[in-house]
């Protein structure tokens, strides 16, 4: 048997993941044509490389179809309820940094904090007859965050892309989205609420607790942990 | 934990037995749809219910929800029937995702009893509690009671602005935010309020962004004015804050709570009607044979878990098992009815029990 390692199948996230493993003596390689989704692991026996969309890696780990996987910590927390029962966090990898934040129109001079947002939502609902809409694709994380902070009178509306445009298009009053530089937000006349973000995300190596771990898999895993200089 | 060792058919038989008991006490047995339009529920309960309910979409009917509780459909059915007063009982499945407690069942059977009778609220409260207490007596459960109406009356009576009272009332069911609002409106919060307004004034001076979205400039300016007023308004007195804290921390047997509340009412007259209501309920419970001398009462009980209750609240729990869901809960929900009745006031009190939990406690298989 072999350990299956799932990594993002394209883009910067894949390149940075290759670099991260290479710096630790493990060479991951795409095989065949550049766009072919297959790969090999050199420098260690017993590991099979699986190239996947970053957004599918949490599900595959939770289902135990891969043993290890690299994906954003935001995706794991949003997609998997009770994520830490199914997955273990092995190593934050130091790249792919992005914050999940809540942003409102810059013209809202009266709103900088969650307190302000809550008060504005109350007045908005009284005036417009419906709850203030926050556009996002991170429903679980955003709901948990707003609940923990006691914000009321809002609703989450689904937005799978171009989320920053929803306010101008009158389909939402505020947005909750991932940002690394904030350029898109500024270009759309939005500002980030002050205080801690909903979640600070980075690329992370996860381990599946549900995958079949045979004795020989555990041996490979402990060798891998040594190479990666991970504690137990 | 899912009460898996008990078969569904046994749970259904127990549910039927309980429903028959409530019918024998004068309730009309009713059925409601399992698939409900989501809109009303979402508007009433907000994101919490969307997160916990199974929502699906129908191309013709829009968003639909698997019944997360019976209260709303039963209230709606009652309004359409026009009968008054009325007593109902029902039994059936409810569906709730258990994100935070994955080992609890997402589908379980509830049996409920609801009273729509405005003639004597204290008697109606006592009637529901006493019936539940009778049914559950053999199980040796711990009963908890409270009254959200006491805290609401105290807030309504605060000697401060309507805006502050409204802000506090809105967050009665979110203790953490309620507490932070109390701080902000108190002497300790004066600096925070001044800073808030100064920050907003600085934003205004620097503001050059275009107005986008549905929230208008007027709405923004209204809030700026509100912050300005709040910054200069004198704080809620330390005496009143202390009384609120006293009320919030009350946890005693009913007779002791009553005497403590009567003392507080000397300095806070606004709570007197609510305290008198509590006293009337205690008398009504006593008249129905409930052991009020030893009944627990906690002013803050039900604030986090029972979002729409606004008066009497109660629950029955398996002793020493805080990890398990309550065997039964209930309370008064006049405000919810008045929202659903669009201003028509229909005083209502009721409760639900979980037959699977009853069987589990009986057979000690927890």
Verbal overview:
- The complex is a heterodimer of chains A (232) and B (366).
- Chain A is an alpha/beta fold and 232 residues long.
- In chain A, 32% of the residues lie in helices and 29% in strands.
- Chain A has 2 domains: 3-96 and 203-228, Periplasmic binding protein-like II (D-Maltodextrin-Binding Protein, domain 2); 98-200, D-Maltodextrin-Binding Protein, domain 2, CATH 3.40.190.10.
- In chain A, strand 2 and strand 3 (39-42) form a beta hairpin.
- The longest helix of chain A has 15 residues, at 114-128.
- The radius of gyration of chain A is 21 Å and the shape is elongated.
- Chain B has 3 domains: 1-141 and 318-366, BirA Bifunctional Protein, domain 2 (2-Layer Sandwich), CATH 3.30.930.10; 143-175 and 237-309, no CATH class; 187-234.
- Helix content of chain B is 48%, strand content 17%.
- The longest helix of chain B has 17 residues, at 8-24.
- The mean pLDDT of chain B is 92.
- The interface between A and B is large, with 42 and 38 residues.
Topology:
The complex is a heterodimer of chains A (232) and B (366).
Chain A: E1 3-8, H1 11-22, E2 27-30, E3 39-42, E4 47-52, H2 57-63, E5 68-72, H3 73-79, H4 83-86, E6 87-92, E7 98-105, H5 114-128, E8 132-136, H6 139-148, E9 154-158, E10 174-179, H7 183-187, E11 190-192, E12 199-201, E13 203-208, H8 215-228
Parallel strand pairs in A: 1-4, 1-5, 8-9, 8-10
Antiparallel strand pairs in A: 2-3, 5-13, 6-13, 7-10, 7-11, 7-12
Chain B: H1 8-24, E1 28-29, E2 35-37, H2 38-45, H3 47-52, E3 55-58, E4 62-66, H4 71-81, E5 86-95, E6 107-116, H5 121-136, E7 142-147, H6 148-156, H7 162-170, H8 175-185, H9 190-206, H10 217-232, H11 238-248, E8 251-253, H12 254-267, H13 272-287, E9 296-298, E10 312-317, E11 328-332, H14 334-340, E12 348-353, H15 355-362
Parallel strand pairs in B: 1-5, 7-9
Antiparallel strand pairs in B: 2-4, 3-4, 5-6, 6-12, 7-10, 8-9, 10-11, 11-12
Helix pairs in contact in B: 5-13, 7-8, 9-10, 12-13
């Amino acid at each position: 048997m072999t350990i299956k390692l799932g990594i993002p199948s394209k883009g910067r996230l894949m390149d940075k993941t290759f670099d991260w493993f290479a710096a630790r003596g493990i060479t991951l390689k795409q095989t065949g044509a550049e766009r072919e989704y297959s790969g090999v692991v050199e420098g260690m026996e017993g590991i099979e490389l699986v190239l996947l969309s970053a957004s599918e890696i949490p599900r595959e780990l939770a289902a135990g179809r891969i043993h290890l996987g690299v994906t954003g910590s935001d995706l794991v927390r949003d997609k998997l309820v009770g994520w830490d029962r199914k997955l273990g966090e092995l190593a934050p990898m130091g790249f792919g940094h992005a914050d999940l934040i809540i942003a409102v129109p810059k013209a809202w001079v009266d709103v900088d904090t969650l307190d302000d947002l809550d008060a504005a939502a109350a007045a908005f609902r009284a005036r417009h007859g419906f709850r203030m809409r926050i556009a996002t694709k991170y429903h679980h994380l955003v709901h948990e965050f707003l609940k923990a902070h006691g914000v009321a009178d809002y609703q989450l509306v689904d937005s799978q892309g171009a989320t920053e445009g929803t306010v101008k298009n009158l389909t939402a009053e505020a947005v909750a989205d991932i940002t690394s530089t904030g350029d898109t937000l500024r270009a759309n006349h939005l500002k980030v609420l002050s205080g801690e973000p909903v979640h600070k995300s980075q690329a992370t190596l996860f381990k599946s607790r549900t995958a079949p771990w045979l004795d020989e898999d555990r041996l490979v895993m402990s060798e891998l942990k040594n190479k990666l200089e991970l504690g137990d | 934990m899912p009460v898996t060792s008990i078969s569904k058919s046994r749970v259904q038989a127990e549910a039927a037995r309980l429903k028959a008991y409530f019918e024998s006490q004068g309730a009309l047995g009713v059925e409601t749809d399992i698939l409900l339009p989501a809109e009303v529920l979402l508007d009433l309960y907000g994101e919490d219910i969307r997160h916990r309910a199974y929502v699906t979409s129908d191309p013709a009917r829009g968003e639909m929800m698997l019944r997360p509780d019976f209260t709303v459909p039963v209230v709606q059915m009652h309004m359409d029937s026009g009968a008054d007063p009325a007593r109902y009982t029902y039994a059936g499945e409810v569906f709730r995702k258990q994100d935070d407690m994955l080992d609890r069942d997402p589908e379980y059977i509830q049996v409920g009893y609801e009273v729509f009778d405005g003639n004597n609220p204290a008697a109606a409260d006592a009637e529901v509690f006493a019936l539940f207490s009778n049914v559950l007596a053999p199980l040796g459960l711990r009963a908890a009671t409270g009254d959200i109406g006491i805290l609401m009356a105290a807030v309504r009576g605060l000697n401060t602005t309507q805006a502050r009272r409204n802000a506090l009332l809105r967050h009665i069911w979110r203790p953490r935010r309620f507490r932070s609002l109390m701080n902000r409106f108190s002497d300790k919060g004066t600096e925070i309020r001044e800073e808030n307004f100064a920050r907003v004034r600085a934003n205004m001076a620097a503001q050059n962004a275009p107005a986008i979205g549905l929230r208008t400039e007027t709405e923004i300016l209204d809030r700026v004015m509100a912050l300005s007023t709040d910054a200069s308004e004198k704080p809620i007195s330390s005496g009143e804050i202390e009384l609120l804290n006293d009320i919030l921390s009350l946890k005693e047997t009913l007779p002791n709570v009553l005497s403590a509340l009567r003392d507080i009412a000397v300095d806070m007259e606004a709570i007197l009607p609510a305290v008198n209501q509590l006293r009337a309920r205690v008398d009504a419970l006593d008249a129905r044979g409930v052991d009020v001398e030893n009944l627990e009462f906690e002013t803050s009980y039900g604030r986090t878990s029972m979002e729409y209750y606004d008066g009497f609240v109660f629950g029955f729990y398996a002793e020493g098992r805080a990890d398990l869901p309550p065997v039964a809960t209930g309370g008064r929900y006049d405000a919810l009815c008045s929202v659903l009745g669009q201003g028509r006031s229909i005083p209502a009190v009721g409760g639900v029990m979980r037959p699977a939990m009853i069987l589990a406690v009986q057979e000690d298989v927890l």
